[in-house]
Amino acid sequence: MSEIKLRVEGIEKSFPGVKALSNISFTVRKGTVHALCGENGAGKSTLMKVLTGLYKADAGRIYIDEQPVEIRNPIQAREYGISMIAQELNYVSELSVEENLFMGRLPVNRFGKVDWKKVRREAIQFLEEEHLNYRPEQKLKTLTVSDIQMLEIIKAVTNNAQIVLMDEPTSSISEREVGLLFEKIRELKEKGVSIVYISHKMDEVFRIADDITVIRDGAVVSSDRAENLDIDTVIAHMVGRKMENVYPKEPVPIQDTVFEVKDFAAKGIFDNISFYARKGEIVGFAGLVGAGRTEVMRAIYGLDGKDTGKIFINGEEVSIKNPSDAIDKGLIMLSEDRKEYGLIPVRSVTENASLASLKNYFYGGRSHKRKEKKDVAEIFQKMNVKTPTLDTLISSLSGGNAQKVLLARWMLCNPQVMILDEPTRGIDVGAKFEIYKLMTDMVKEGKTIVMVSSELPELIGMCDRIYVMCQGLITGCLDKEEVTQERIMMLATGLLGKSQQKGA
Amino acid sequence: MKSSKASTYLQRFSIYIVLIAMFVACSLLSPYFLSANNLMNVARQLCVGILLAYAEMILIVSGFLDLSIGSVLALAGVLSVSTFKSTHSMLLALVVAFAVGVACNMINAVFVAQFDVPAFIATLGMQQVARGIALYYTGGANILQLGKYVKLGQGMVGKVPVPVIIVLCITVVVWYLFNHTRYGRNLYAIGGNRKAAEASGIDTRKNIFISYAIVGVLAGLAGAIFMARNNSGIPNGAVGYEMTGLTAAIVGGTSFSGGVGTVMGTVAGAFIIGFLENIMNLIGVNSYIQSIIEGAIIVLAVAFDIRSKNRKTTKQIMAVKDEKK
């Protein structure tokens, strides 16, 4: 088992003005999972790009089976048996399962005509082998995101891959599917495939990894067997300091009910949704992907329609038809999809931050840009947003900093109730901690937070109460004292019946 | 870090550098270019084009465009001219020009905003419709002898042509809209990421309607000036002017993918195109060749925009990483 499949030695890569990778060396053993950990911007993605031939290293060598290789482009990488599953999936939703499976390597006859019979035959065989219940001619858009992710993984493997690089493969799949993925990974290991696994989720890393290499600022900080490490050590290596407490939750006196949702329903999506949140409280929403949490929040915020339902803020019924109504009433929502519903990539951090509170800076027929800059600078400082200048494009910030700018956007509206949908998705440990800290500060200021998350530890660590949803229904509500991962999962999978809600 | 900063500045001002280079090159190519007469001529000719460039810029920045503006210009101009001939009221004639421009563009806006028809298709349809109405109304014949109406295009206040003054005023207004109003910010946000803008409480539909209304006013005004300059109502005039407007906006750095563009850049873009056309005429370039060159420029400008954007993002990411160290 200690046979070495991939050896990376002294990889260096510089971009104009910055050294992205310096002297990176590590080895991946055959049939093992090697986790690469590091904060965003540590150089993991650059390293992946070197390994798949997208970037050319300035120095250093790569050995496969102890043979030196030179990987000039992705096609060569594939020939060497290296396959990559990117964080953002590459698929064409309008094409069929089989077309996606064979994309870029459709078998052709000698006249260049695609051999569709062969495609179909192999696709069927393949889907059967993998126990996947879809038809090869089904369009990809009829599958769920997690199905697609599984397909993508399997596709990578059927490329006869010997080395599979996985970049945050679980960022958009649910807990249960993570289990499926891990099973697949174990299967692969048994076949002797080596896996390089990049993830921010420490519990996952420790569940699956045999070896762990930590990268910080483009250099390897540590590389060791997983059994010799623990979560705290790895996090400490990643951020370069010891994390005292992962969840900086502080007790805040919980006061009156500020926000109440009654009987929300949208046919076929969710039904009978009622919940409340009090001043100073962080209320969590747990559930599997597809349970309808995001859909409920979007309907409350006025982004999507609903069939029935009432919203009360401070005991008064409010009508919210669109986000602008919601913002006026002091209710905001941070979307789970930062790219699609958050960032304006081509505009500056300042413009991105002030976007939802423009009426404070443009009134009376004039602009008040100095005030805008001042407010933005203040809130950035408070939130520790790292940006070179206030005019920097937001697209050049790291995920964590961009997320903080979006939070700043909402804080500048001075809302009463904040719905935060997956506020820490895809951001590094350090930035996560800072966002938790901000959440704590906000409830201390008397705000109310509703937090949707797929990461159970963070829900348990941060929330006072957690509602659990399953298939469009609220299946239960757990108080801080009684909450455990197991109980949440029971409710989320519908095992624990539809118990009545707790509290009043 | 320093060198990248310098190159950022270079990039930001590249359009003005091109403009100056163009100016110098033109004055070397033809001795006549620098004459007051010629420059005034260029300015006068540019007036209509700049108005259209502003219209296209407003739309491109927010992720839309208008292919109907040349036809709407002709329709508004023809109806305005005909109003003037029958009433002799300049005010009424201008009101008609604006009303026609706005009406056509409200129809565009309804399809684009309410029915989500791609702006390309909706305005392509309007291009045909407006041209058709203009030709039908006039029976295809030009309306001649405009009388005092021509002042709008040919008149002078002191040594400055009337249309130049009008365009200067409009420039200030459009610049103010983009830089000092919420509407301007909204446009950048909608063009940069429409869904995010909506999620941040921006009413995109309303803003689309406002934009097309402004475009309508600009088209009407351009129509009046165009007809006045030619001293006739030409239903078949200004064919292809939407391309002139688009080219100026895009050469001036307005990004076709939305969210980026400045008024001053657009002015510079319009002047670059204006100088180019002028010098080609002065040195006697065949007009068919001119068309070829102008067509090539628009594609090259977009290609350049996309290339430089790709490079810019990587560069800036690197810059941030640099900062972190």
Residue share in helix of chain A: 25-40%
Number of helices of chain A: 17
Largest sheet of chain B: 2 strands, antiparallel
Which strand-content bin applies to the residues of chain A? 25-35%
> Which spans of chain B of ≥5 residues are poorly predicted at pLDDT below 50?
313-325
Global Rg of chain B? 20 Å
- Cα(first) to Cα(last) distance of chain A is 58 Å
Shape label of chain B: globular
Q: What is the oligomer described by this structure?
A: heterodimer
Q: How confident is the prediction overall: mean pLDDT of chain B?
A: 89
Q: What is the total tally of β strands of chain A?
A: 22
Number of strands of chain B: 4
N to C succession of SSEs of chain B: HHHHHEHEEHHHHEHHH
Please mark out the parts of chain A with pLDDT under 50 across 5 or more consecutive residues, or reply none. 498-504
Named CATH topology of chain B: ABC transporter involved in vitamin B12 uptake, BtuC
Biggest interface, chains and residues, is: A-B, 43 and 41 residues
Whole-angstrom Rg of chain A: 24 Å
What features would you describe in this structure?
The complex is a heterodimer of chains A (504) and B (325). Chain A starts with a strand and ends in a 12-residue tail after the last helix. With 504 residues, chain A is of the alpha/beta class. In chain A, α13 packs across α14 (399-411). Mean pLDDT of chain A is 86; it is low at 498-504. In chain A, β11 (257-266) and β12 (270-278) form a beta hairpin. In chain A, strands 6-7-8-3-9-10 form a six-stranded mixed beta sheet, sandwiched between helices. Chain A is globular. Chain A is built from 17 helices and 22 strands. Chain B has 325 residues and is mostly helical. Chain B has a single domain (2-320), classed as Orthogonal Bundle (ABC transporter involved in vitamin B12 uptake, BtuC), CATH 1.10.3470. Chain B is 78% helix and 2% strand. Chain B has helices at residues 2-29, 36-61, 69-87, 90-114, 119-138, 151-154, 162-180, 182-192, 194-199, 204-230, 241-251, 263-282, 287-324; strands at residues 143-144, 156-157, 160-161, 232-233. In chain B, the strands form two sheets. A two-stranded antiparallel ribbon of chain B has the order 1-4. In chain B, β2 and β3 form a beta hairpin. Mean pLDDT of chain B is 89; it is low at 313-325. At the A-B interface, α10 and β18 of A face α8, α9 and α13 of B.
